[in-house]
Design brief:
DUF3304 domain-containing protein; DUF3304; single chain; mainly beta; five-stranded mixed sheet; four-stranded mixed sheet
């Protein structure tokens, strides 16, 4: 297994760390190989912008990336303010109880013969992820990940 360094010089190209969230949970934070993706990603949204992710000039079998992330409710509209400390602490406890930490090491898809533009993490239902280094827009037919933006969470996730 080859673990990629984020700062490895690359003739293949470097770019930002982005994400697309296909779930009803917020992605409170995420990182790729320890490098932050910066933004909170709301349900069914995209974002990110952390710098930087690069790959070696040639892809090799066994290349992987480690993605760490936290899911939760994100920004809550029922924030009580700080004036009533007891209400605030109850609200915070409820928000924190919904947060979950995740970590996965996933294969980096073959990019030989293609331009690379950083990395995009797709957060899918059942705490699954897919990654791509593609320069194509997700709206383009050539983009390699085809899952719809709004995906339903199954009642039971496969193990």
């Amino acid at each position: 297994m080859v673990f990629l360094s984020i700062f490895m010089p690359s003739k293949a190209g470097a770019g930002v760390i982005k994400a697309i969230n296909h779930t009803h949970w917020a992605i409170n934070r995420f990182s790729v190989n320890g490098q932050s993706g910066i933004d909170i990603i709301g349900p069914y949204q995209g974002g990110g912008g952390g710098c930087c992710f690069s790959v070696p000039e040639k892809w090799q079998p066994g290349m992987t990336v480690k993605v760490d992330w936290e899911t939760g409710v994100g920004i809550s509209m029922d924030f009580p303010g700080y004036e009533n400390r007891q209400r605030y602490l109850e609200w915070k406890k409820n928000i924190d109880s919904q947060k979950k930490q995740h970590s996965k090491t996933v294969p980096l898809p073959d990019y030989n013969g293609q331009d690379t533009c950083g990395i995009t993490i797709h957060f899918l239902p059942c705490d699954e992820i897919k990654v791509t280094t593609s320069c194509w827009s997700p709206r383009n037919a050539n983009y390699p990940i085809k899952e719809p933006l709004r995906m339903e969470e199954p009642k039971v996730c496969p193990k």
